[in-house]
TrEMBL record:
This is Polyhydroxyalkanoic acid system family protein. It holds the Pfam family PHA_gran_rgn. InterPro entries: PHA_gran_rgn. The lineage of its organism: Bacteria, Pseudomonadati, Pseudomonadota, Alphaproteobacteria, Rhodospirillales.
Amino acid sequence: MPKPVVVTIPHQLGREEAKRRLQGGMGQVRSQLAGVGASVEDHWSENQMRFEVAVLAQTIGGRIDIQDDLVRLEVDLPWVLAMLAEKITGRIAKQGTLMLTKG
């Protein structure tokens, strides 16, 4: 059973600008992950993105909910990766913050 990891990133951008920046940043994430043989699929519905990342015979799924003053990211880690949850959480928070701070 997947272990959910939740990361919240506060922002002062407003919902629409945060969404625009995250949508733009997904291209960079896709390029970075392609370099290690991963594939990324994302689907937007209003202010929520659902995604799946396939890498090393593992699939990682999750959701990003964009609110007026924060972004909530929930990632379902397979049990193999759940042992690395603390390190993964820090990296997710760092990447999300970079995506929101760069216009």
